[in-house]
Amino acid sequence: MKILLVEDDRLLGDGIRAGLLQAGFAVDWAQDGRTAELALSGEAYDAVVLDLGLPRLSGMEVLARARAARNAVPVLILTARDTVPDRIAGLDAGADDYLVKPFDLGELQARLRALIRRSGQQAEPVLAHGALRLDPAARSASWQGQPVELSAREFAVLHTLLLNAGRVLSKAQLEESLYGWGEEIESNAVEVFVHHLRRKLSAELIRTVRGVGYMIPKAAE
Ligand code: CA
C-alpha cells in the first residue's frame, strides 16, 4: 500500500512518514505542491495525505488538478485550523476525508485503511480468500485458522495482490507499492517475498504469469 504524503513542514512530515512506515505503508513524501502534482501524474497511489498550505502550488490546487485529470485516488486533507469553510472547500474540491492538526497518528492510519478499503469497494475490514485471512489493521494473517508470521514487506505484497485479486500485477507494480522515494530496492526482492509467501501459506495461492507478473485468482464464490 503506497501513500503520497504532501507536507512542507519538515518536522511534522518526518513524524507522519515514520508513523505510516510503522503501519506498513510505503511512503513517497513530496514537500511542495508541484512535486505532488508530478508524482500524482506519474505514479499510482493507494491514498494521498495532503496538507493545504504548501509552497509552489496549494494543496487545494493539487487536489483540483488531480480530479480534473480524472485521478480518483482517495485523498485525506490536513487542515491547520479547525475552520469549517476550509473543510467544506476541501471536501467540495474532491477530498474524501480530513483531519485537523494536531491529530493522532493512530487515527490517521485507521482513516487511511478505511479510505483504501472503501476505494476497493470492500466493506469488510478483514480480507478473506479461501483459507487465508488478512487483517490490515492488526497486520496479522492466518492460513486455515493458524496464525502466520509475515514480515512487513511480505504482508504488503500479499495485501496488494489480494486487493487486486483476479488481476496480474507486474514486478514493477509490486515494487512500486513496496518502496518509497530514495529507498534502495534489492534486485529480485519481489521474487523473494513471493517465494516466502508460498512457503508460509500455500504453493498454489500466488500464480506466476510468465513474462508478466503475479496474481491471486479471484476467490471461488
Ligand atoms: Ca503547510
Structural write-up:
- By secondary structure, the protein is of the alpha/beta class.
- It is globular and about 50 Å long.
- The strands form three sheets. It has a five-stranded parallel β-sheet, with helices on both faces. The protein has a four-stranded antiparallel β-sheet with strand order 6-7-8-9, with helices on one face.
- The chain has two domains: 2-119, 3-Layer(aba) Sandwich (Rossmann fold), CATH 3.40.50.2300; 127-215, Winged helix-like DNA-binding domain superfamily/Winged helix DNA-binding domain (Arc Repressor Mutant, subunit A, Orthogonal Bundle).
- The two termini are 26 Å apart.
- The chain has eight helices and eleven strands.
- Helix 2 (33-42) packs parallel to helix 3.
- It has helices spanning 10-22, 33-42, 59-68, 84-92, 105-119, 152-163, 171-178, 189-200; strands spanning 2-6, 26-30, 47-51, 75-79, 97-100, 127-129, 132-135, 140-143, 146-148, 207-209, 213-215.
- The structure holds calcium ion (CA).
- The site of calcium ion (CA) has 5 residues, from loops.
- Calcium ion binds next to loops.
Would you spell out the secondary-structure blueprint of this structure?
Blueprint: E1 2-6, H1 10-22, E2 26-30, H2 33-42, E3 47-51, H3 59-68, E4 75-79, H4 84-92, E5 97-100, H5 105-119, E6 127-129, E7 132-135, E8 140-143, E9 146-148, H6 152-163, H7 171-178, H8 189-200, E10 207-209, E11 213-215
Parallel strand pairs: 1-2, 1-3, 3-4, 4-5
Antiparallel strand pairs: 6-7, 7-8, 8-9, 10-11
Helix pairs in contact: 2-3, 6-8
The structure holds calcium ion.
Calcium ion binds at residues 8-9, 51, 53-54.
